[in-house]
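Notes continue from the previous slide.

Worked example: a multi-chain complex. Inputs as given:
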Amino acid sequence: MDLEKLFKPKSMVVVGISKSNPLSPGRIIFIKNVFEMQVEVFGIHPKGGEIEGVELFTRLEDLPKVPELMVLAIPAKSTLEYVEQCAEYNIPGCIIISGGFAEIGGEGKKHQEKLRKIAMENDIAVLGPNCIGVYSPPLLDTIFMPTERITRPPKGSVALISQSGGVLVDQFFHKFNQINIGVSTAVSIGNRAVVDETMLLEYFSTKDKETSNIAFYLEAFNPSKSRKFLQLAKESEDDVIVYFGGMTEKGKKATQSHTASLSGNEKILQAALEQYLIIQPLTELELLTDLKLLDILSHKKKPFDPHLVMEGKVAILSLSGGHGVICADLLKNYSLTAVDFTQEEKLEMRDLVNPVARGIATFENPIDLTGSAKDEDLENIIKYLSKIDRIECIIVLILPYTPSITFQIGRRIANTVTMSKKPVICFIPYIPKYGSIIESLELSNIPVFHSIEEAVQGVLMLKKKTKIMNIKRTK
Amino acid sequence: MDLEKLFKPKSMVVVGISKSNPLSPGRIIFIKNVFEMQVEVFGIHPKGGEIEGVELFTRLEDLPKVPELMVLAIPAKSTLEYVEQCAEYNIPGCIIISGGFAEIGGEGKKHQEKLRKIAMENDIAVLGPNCIGVYSPPLLDTIFMPTERITRPPKGSVALISQSGGVLVDQFFHKFNQINIGVSTAVSIGNRAVVDETMLLEYFSTKDKETSNIAFYLEAFNPSKSRKFLQLAKESEDDVIVYFGGMTEKGKKATQSHTASLSGNEKILQAALEQYLIIQPLTELELLTDLKLLDILSHKKKPFDPHLVMEGKVAILSLSGGHGVICADLLKNYSLTAVDFTQEEKLEMRDLVNPVARGIATFENPIDLTGSAKDEDLENIIKYLSKIDRIECIIVLILPYTPSITFQIGRRIANTVTMSKKPVICFIPYIPKYGSIIESLELSNIPVFHSIEEAVQGVLMLKKKTKIMNIKRTK
């Protein structure tokens, strides 16, 4: 089954365009692709005519060419005849937005079985039903939310596959804009009657060169294919991240109704994912931290050697005692460790800072350079720490409100890290006026986070990445 | 000891104004109070003259009046003579910004002991040393960060007391602006040689009418007075929140250096705090959620009856299956429960929604009204759920990208909640264009959070608040 036409069709047809309701899913999809996207789009309406100035066709056979993709946003019971037309006209891809299939049980379940049968017998890549489809910029976007209501992420290298359309739009799209990463293709799989997460993993890891990392929101694996999914993930050159919803009793019950699937036992699942080198964030925050870090590491210009963090041994460099304390507490929570400095190291570091700070700074780990620190103090201490082999990673807590820290601090740290290649993760509080500092670090591919917890999660992600790289290398 | 002059002095004098370094703490404090704040300010410089057009005095005795507050930003060893002058001239308050005291050990420790002795013998309210002082809008601001480098929160009703100046500025000030709450007075206690958290708790809970809630960042209680702190907290009409740093080994070690204090055993501490009705958030996120919710509940117009959440029994109302699933999982993590609906309730709810949603929505808990929901569906279901007594709180997951949801949804929910008085907590993803929906809810004092986790933490906070209210009532 060729999935490519779902994401890169030359032309597509939309069925289910309401003339009376401008907010009907089919109409939103039709109009947004006509005016905003690059794919060639045709619209079908039983009565023909036009909508918002665009011509509609009454039947498939009237189209000037056979489209490569059909998008259906019509009541469930009417979908089957159109899928049969896909077979008849050799249309290789079909996205079914409509709900009312297995997720409502009874008749819906039977409908879905018939749908699957037609698709399998005729080799049609059917996505859905009960999904919001595909966002494949700049070509097509079948997400039935009006564009002005959501934020769409820029083109990038993360492939997103979600069992929930809402999660795709909200937890991924909105947040990707905030953390400045982009997607290659985003896919909502809905009830996955035909195309499922395993097929998509295979497609994106082997056939899509735009993708570097593949992220899933799942509530359960398609049970008959979970083994294949795990094997594909292990063999993939791309990193594979799976964020699971529905792990609790109530959550599980909920997933059964809305996507007609059964989720598995949490602990067995976690162990399996780890064994097959799948990254499994436990919270939404961690999911985004992991994706941000993997995105940075997939850039051509690597900011630092990404496989140095074997055990998670960290030096914390701060300008505020409290920040250092909170960071040290968090390291513990994530099973990472703060290294101990020798007496000699402490004295050498003290000699490196300006005389005012020298009198009041502390050189335990966390290091607190205090509010009297200057740019060059931070730079010198990062250089010094970078040479200590037992330190695998440095967390730098940058507080741009420190009076003698200038807005060049970002660029100066970036230069230092680029020379030393020691993994460095920065925390800078997010307020818009610190933007130039943040940007100077991000342009050099140094990870910057806006909470101390994310910076610590970033180290954990580096540790996981080192482990995965080492296992994949020895194979 | 009268603390009022630390926060509400009629006049103050700043010592330590550098003529050569415009970024020296003393100079920043002097200039910002002259130009930005309302207190009458005098500056001392041994050579007199002027700075940025403002006259300086050479000695305290030259001032036109005796100030009520002295701010010292000079090297540690020079501070004592000025504190002695406070005694001589009957200046009741003194803020010592300077570091180099107990936190560096040795000589510094001795200095601090002398300082304390003078202050106690002469009844001078000394704040610090090694602190950033006080922000008491609109009167004074001794925080030595240039104002354009930070964001200062608006006037409000939360008193903030922090053992770390960095945490005060970053974890509190920056975030308060983001979550739209304000402070009555903010205090950095530094080494707390004289004025400590216990004295401040007493002051803010009994003498400051602007304050409704009192929040602390502490790394340890002042050991000799922890019992009094707990007792004061229990008796306080205000809610008391303590967020602790330095709970791990490394964190503990760090607190010893930067604030010269020893922290206690985590579990004993937690049990004591709970017994004395102190709210103890475990993460930064929870801290802010708690403060936001308490701030809302301290408004005159209560959005709902705040003491209904006895056990944390929740109904989840969503427009996306995935969001409901994630929320149900999180309830479990926070030991809250999703109530079960009866078959009859499910059928009755189904009858309340529009025909398209009716066919595909699910009425388990979480309820998923799907992307076909309309404003009135949400409104009707909230009304219905509000009448079910065993539901203590409703979490509404509002996704404003749902095509038929309008930007009036906030106002409509606000009206419904104001009528029913059932506790409701809303989640709305934060993107600026949803601002008017968010604002319409916040103006009606309905809590709105921008992650599902915060919404769930909000319910937990309501549960804690109910418990505290019930205990305080029965006394």
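Summary box: The CA atoms of residues 398 and 428 of chain B lie 5 Å apart. Chain B touches chain A through 83 residues (CB under 8 Å).
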